[in-house]
């Protein structure tokens, strides 16, 4: 699958992720914000993210 993943900080400065299909539609997203980026990535992994998948952008 060629979905793109984005990890970003929301307005509360909490980490979130979203998964976008090749047709541009959002097919998954974090239902809550995370204080730590690692917790956000772990949640994304439980929802299908793999370290080998494409990440569009990611704040550090």
| Strand percentage | 35-45%
> pLDDT below 50 for ≥5 consecutive residues: which ranges?
none
Distance separating the two termini: 26 Å
Radius of gyration: 11 Å
The third-level CATH topology is Double Stranded RNA Binding Domain
Strand order of the largest sheet: 3-2-1-4
Helix content: 10-25%
CATH architecture: 2-Layer Sandwich
Number of helices: 1
Helix and strand element order: EEEHE
> For this structure, what is the CATH class?
Alpha Beta
Structural class: alpha+beta
Structure commentary:
The protein has 60 residues and is an alpha+beta fold. The protein has a single domain, classed as 2-Layer Sandwich (Double Stranded RNA Binding Domain), CATH 3.30.160. The protein is built from one helix and four strands; from the N terminus they run βββαβ. The chain has one helix spanning 37-46, and strands at residues 4-9, 15-20, 26-29, 54-58. A four-stranded mixed beta sheet has the order 3-2-1-4, with helices on one face. Strand 1 (4-9) and strand 2 (15-20) form a beta hairpin. The chain is globular and about 30 Å long.
């Amino acid at each position: 699958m060629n979905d793109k993943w984005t990890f970003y900080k929301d307005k509360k400065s909490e980490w979130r992720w979203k998964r976008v299909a090749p047709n541009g539609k959002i097919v998954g997203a974090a239902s809550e914000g995370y204080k730590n980026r690692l917790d956000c990535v772990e949640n994304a992994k439980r929802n299908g993210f793999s370290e080998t998948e494409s990440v569009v952008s990611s704040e550090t």
